[in-house]
Structure formats: structure tokens, C-alpha cells
Amino acid sequence: MLDKKKHKILVLGVNGFIGNAIYKELYPYFRVFGTYSTPNKASEKNKQFFHYNHEEDDVVEILEATKPSIIISSLRGNFATQTIAHRHITEYVKHHNCKIIFISSANVFDAYKNYPSYELDKTLSSSIYGHFKIKIENMLMRLPKSKWAILRLPMVFGTGSPRIEEIRTQLKEKTPIEVFPNLIINVTTDYKLSQQIHYIINRNKTGIFHLGSTDLIHHDEFIKEIVGSLVLYNPVYKQVYTTNDDRYLAVLPKDNLLPKNLQIQSKDVLKMSIL
Ligand SMILES: NC(=O)c1ccc[n+]([C@@H]2O[C@H](COP(=O)([O-])OP(=O)(O)OC[C@H]3O[C@@H](n4cnc5c(N)ncnc54)[C@H](OP(=O)(O)O)[C@@H]3O)[C@@H](O)[C@H]2O)c1
Questions:
Q1: Ligand 1 atom nearest 156 alpha carbon
Q2: Residue 259 CA to chain centroid, in angstroms?
Q3: Angle ∠(224,226,229) on CA atoms, nearest 5
Q4: Which residue, judged by its Cα, is nearest atom 5 of ligand 1?
Q5: Who is most buried in 50, 127, 157, 180, counting CB within 10 A?
Q6: Which of 76, 79, 89, 159 to mutate to test the pocket of ligand 1 (most atoms within 8 A of CB)?
Q7: DSSP for 179-248?
Q8: In sequence order, what are the beta bridge partners of 189?
Q9: pTM for this one?
């Protein structure tokens, strides 16, 4: 349904891998604004795009200029300044007719090794990155539930994704491709994720979403399948063992399920990554 008036959406990190996929999916249907931090001609010309560096600028200025009804946060960079930015965003969301969709990560569970994680499991991380994501999640969860959606992602692939491009480069340069034989993961693509976000917006869904494939796969098996389908060069692998036993880093959906057509399996991720 074309209803450009329905929402004004601000994508923080619109030129990033995930931010850009979200932008492409949403802009035919909504008024979509975006922020970029690396200056470039195309973004400077685009009146809907704003330069924003969370290490230097106040996000509130962008919020006041764009007055979004939905903010999608897909940023990377300095954790301290990202935290401050999200504190300001939380305050803004609290006092305006506005919601936030925060792109989080399976790493909020990276201290658990023995099982995959579900939406309502308690978060626990042993990495700085995971800790940082938990901090922002907890900040947002203090808002009324109608005002936030937290999307926890596993590794994101897709044609042209940085992860696939890195493998292509490693194959060409004959440098080792890291695989983790003990690591059990789930996976997704930027394209499927964008469709899921579109649905979450259209249906006004909120809460915690685990947006990984519904099945699990060993990291080395998945990467080797990708490499096998890219053929061309003989791969060199570097096997990385972080534990003796199998270890999980997977976010499975259970309580906040999306419709079947919006779910994905690892074999589809593979197909959609090597087109
Ligand atoms: N990719 C994955 O597999 C994956 C998995 C789980 C979760 N995530 C999460 O998804 C989100 C997006 O990741 P991504 O893979 O799309 O990363 P990405 O391609 O590196 O994009 C990051 C975005 O952040 C912006 N940015 C970086 N430093 C900034 C700064 N100082 N001020 C303002 N903006 C800044 C970049 O802007 P410019 O491009 O203009 O510099 C870019 O748009 C992240 O929060 C990440 O934790 C990703």
C-alpha cells in the first residue's frame, strides 16, 4: 500500500550495509530520511540525507529537523558516543509520537555457550560489543513497549555483503579464510531483514525480535558451502578453535514469530548470497 504520509522514517547509518538495504526497501512506500558520516557527493545532493557524526554532532538536531515517527538505528562506531546518542534518542522518543527500531546483535548472548537463545532469555555477554548492545537495549526497554522494537541479528550475508566480498578477496589473494568448526550459528540476509522490518512497520509490531534463520548450521560448513559455490580459486582455510566443545551463537525466534513467508532458512541465505 502506497501511503507516504503514514510514516516519516529516519535511518541512522543510511549508507551502511544494512541501513542501505532498509532504505531501498522502504523509500518507495514512506518518506525516508537518512544520516551519513562519510561525506560523498550523492548524499550531499540528496535533500533527505543529513550529515551526522555521533562523535561530534548532537542527534537531537537531526531529530528536530526531520521529525520522524520511526527512527531506525543501524550505526557503528565509537561505543561511548553511540551510547550518548541513544540516550538522547530515548528521551526524544519518550516525549514525541515516535518509535525506535534498534538493530542489535546475537552477541548480547555471547557469554552463553551451550544453547541457542530466544527472545525472552536473559542477555549475558563477555565481549565489549555485546555489553554495549545490552546497555542500549536496556535503555530502550525502559520506554513503554509500544515505543520500541529490538531486532537481534546473527551474521548478515547477501549478495555484495561485506562478508561475501571479504571471502571473494581472500580467495583471489589466496589468504586464509577463517572458519570456526565448533561454532553453531544461524544467519540471515540484508534483503530478508529489510522485508521483515517493512512488515514490523506496517503491522505496528513492537518488542524483541530474533531475526535469524529458523535452523542452525556450523560456521565452517556454511562458509565452505559459500566458498564451494564461488568456485574459481582453491581456498585456504584457517580453522579457529575457541573451545573444545560446540559453542552456540544463535538467535532463534519463538515468542515473537513473523509469518512463514518472512522466515528464512540457512539454505535460502546461501542461495541469496551467491547469486
Ligand atoms: N552486518 C552484520 O552481520 C551485523 C550483524 C549483527 C548486527 N549488526 C548491526 O547492524 C548495524 C549496522 O551494521 P552494518 O553491518 O550495516 O555496518 P556498516 O556497513 O559498517 O554501517 C555502519 C553505519 O554506521 C555509520 N557510522 C559509522 N561511524 C559513524 C559515526 N561516527 N557517526 C555517525 N555514523 C557512523 C556509517 O556511516 P558512513 O557509511 O556514512 O560512514 C554506516 O552508515 C550495527 O549496529 C551492527 O552492530 C550487523
A1: 3
A2: 19
A3: 105
A4: 155
A5: 157
A6: 76
A7: E-TTEEE-EEEHHHHHHHHHHHHHTT--EEEE-S-SS-EEHHHHHHHHHHHH-SS---EEE--SSSS-EE
A8: 157
A9: 0.97
Residue with cell 542461495: 271
Summarize pLDDT for 77-91 with one digit per residue, the tens. Answer: 999 999 999 999 999
Give the span between the Cα atoms of 170 and 162, in whole angstroms: 12
* Polymer length in residues for the chain: 275
pLDDT, one tens digit per residue, over 148-175 is 999 999 999 999 999 999 999 999 899 9
| C-beta 79 within 6 A of ligand 1 | no
Cα–Cα nearest to 216, from 116, 138, 146: 116
Report the atom number in ligand 1 closest to the C-alpha of 133: 47
